[in-house]
Design a protein that fits this description.
The complex is a heterodimer.
Chain A lengths: L8 H9 L7 E4 L3 H4 L11 E4 L3 E4 L22 E7 L2 H9 L5 E4 L3 E3 L4 E2 L14 H7 L3 E4 L11 E2 L14 E3 L3 E6 L2 E7 L5 H6 L5 E9 L3
Parallel strand pairs in A: 1-2, 1-5, 5-8, 6-9, 8-10, 12-13
Antiparallel strand pairs in A: 2-3, 3-4, 6-7, 10-11, 11-12
Helix pairs in contact in A: 3-4
Chain B lengths: L5 E2 L2 H4 L8 E4 L9 H10 L4 E4 L14 H5 L3 E6 L12 H7 L4 E4 L2 H13 L4 E3 L13 E4 L2 E6 L4 E7 L2 E3 L4 E2 L8 H5 L2 E8 L1 E3 L18 E4 L5
Parallel strand pairs in B: 1-14, 2-3, 2-9, 3-4, 4-5, 9-12, 10-13, 12-14
Antiparallel strand pairs in B: 6-8, 7-8, 10-11
Classes of the chains: A alpha/beta, B alpha/beta.
């Protein structure tokens, strides 16, 4: 069968970018979520918030043009869009906690069928860094998870219950992986889209809880 | 002209910080960190410190921060949101000392950390936040349901000293910051008994646009002039 490779990270980022609506304020987590910024819909106003006090994060600067004082939450140099603004952490987390962000796109180690998110600590390490994750997971109006469908060892990351320490309980609205788009609903997980060449049974085999297959199931398209 | 004391020697400006003090250190991923003040404190070897700061680097980034106090063995406890890097490939001094039980950690969500500091500075006796409900950050904390939603009670977090960094000051201690180097600095300025500010310029009164001042001078006790690099 052709097309059996999981989707590249860039395609997952492009798929998420399609969800973003005109006028939305968006927070992007470190890693795969940050890639979403490269595929923002050009015909829409989508403003990127970074928890270190930036509203209106622009593209990465040209090499040698970095401003040493301007970075994103991962510490990488960024630019400011025209009309972007700057503030301190107290304001930034008032924005987050006060439910002003339309969506946060976050990475995950584990997601449960009830929408629990675990993304800050591997228990075997004994110590972790939470950063702004717990505030963002709880505070954003919508939380989209962007991740590989399974671990490198092929173990499911979508579980009945998370075994790792939680970032937020019942906070995830949708999961975008390299195999599928899955909505978290009160009835359970709804498989809505699937990578080209994959079957619902194959996605189910890599997912611990039972998936409901949407009657409108379709291929992931960009 | 009268004003806040302006030091040119970071060691002199921090000479009265005693062993065992609780110290807030501004900065985020190396930006807006009062590096010259931290180096002075390290060189004096003041120990047993409790450090309140967002993140610690420690060998994995080119930026200096409060990790240099940890590496010098001067820190007893860290209160932070991001004390270790995501990758475990090169354990930092903090991670090693924490594993050996030689340094205590109070890990807080970033928004809870800054709001506890803000509460201390604003005379608020605590607050209820939805952040951390149903997670390990709720352990030992009062849960209250307000309008159908669960919240955790968090206490204010004050300090003896705040070491912060601003871009420019005037001699009354009014401060402005640059870009994302603002981060925790203005909030920490409000929450310590003594706030010491590393700045690049101390201008005459009236030189800053009063509408643009971010930290009013009432929060600032000392200014330390340090050239751009440190």
């Amino acid at each position: 069968m052709t097309g059996r490779a999981p989707l590249p990270r860039e395609v997952v980022a492009m798929r998420i970018a399609r969800e973003l609506e005109d006028g939305w304020y968006v927070n992007l987590g470190i890693g795969l979520p940050t890639l979403v910024a490269n595929y923002l819909p050009p015909d829409k106003l989508v403003v990127i918030h970074s928890e270190n006090g930036v509203l209106g994060v622009g593209p990465a600067p040209e090499l040698g043009q970095e401003d040493p004082d301007l970075c994103n939450a991962g510490g990488q140099p960024v630019t400011l869009i025209p009309g972007g603004c700057l503030f301190g952490h107290a304001e930034s987390f008032a924005i987050i906690r006060g439910r002003h962000l339309d969506v946060a796109v976050l990475g995950a180690l584990q997601v449960s069928e009830g929408g629990d998110l675990a993304n800050w600590m591997l228990p075997q390490r004994g110590v972790g860094s939470i950063g702004g994750g717990a505030d963002i997971a709880r505070g954003a109006k919508r939380v989209y998870v962007a991740m590989e469908h399974t671990t490198r060892e092929g173990e499911p990351k979508i579980l009945r219950q998370c075994s790792y320490p939680l970032t937020g309980r019942g906070v995830v609205n949708a999961i975008f992986t390299d195999l599928a788009v899955i909505r978290v609903s009160p009835q359970g997980l709804l498989l809505e889209e699937i990578a080209p060449g994959w079957t619902p049974e194959e996605v189910q085999a890599r997912t611990e809880p039972r998936l409901m297959v949407s009657p409108a199931l379709r291929e992931i398209r960009l | 002209m009268p004003g806040k004391p302006v030091f040119s020697d970071p060691a002199q400006a921090t000479a009265d910080i005693p062993a065992g003090a609780t110290i807030m250190v501004g900065g985020f991923t190396g930006r807006g960190v009062p590096v010259a003040l931290l180096r002075a404190l390290r060189d004096r070897g003041v120990g047993g410190l409790t450090i309140v700061t967002n993140d610690l680097s420690g060998g994995w980034s080119p930026w200096e921060d409060a990790a240099l106090l940890v590496e010098a063995g001067l820190v007893r406890k860290v209160i932070a949101s991001f004390p270790i890097p995501g990758s475990a490939s090169t354990p930092t001094a903090f991670e090693r000392l924490h594993r050996e039980g030689k340094i205590e950690l109070e890990l807080l969500p970033q928004g809870t950390l800054v709001e506890r500091i803000r509460a201390a500075g604003a005379g608020i006796g605590g607050f209820y936040t939805p952040t951390g409900v149903g997670t390990p950050f709720a352990e030992g904390k009062e849960v209250r349901v307000i309008d159908g939603q669960e919240y955790l009670f968090e206490l204010p977090l004050p300090a003896d000293f705040a070491l912060i960094r601003a871009h420019r000051a005037d001699v009354l201690g009014n401060l402005v910051y640059r870009r994302a180097a603002r981060n925790f600095n203005p909030t920490m300025a409000t929450a310590a008994r003594v706030t010491i500010v590393q700045v690049e310029e101390a201008l005459p009164a009236g030189a800053l646009d009063p509408e643009a001042v971010v930290t009013p001078g009432i929060y600032v006790q000392r200014l330390v002039l340090v050239g751009g690099a440190a």
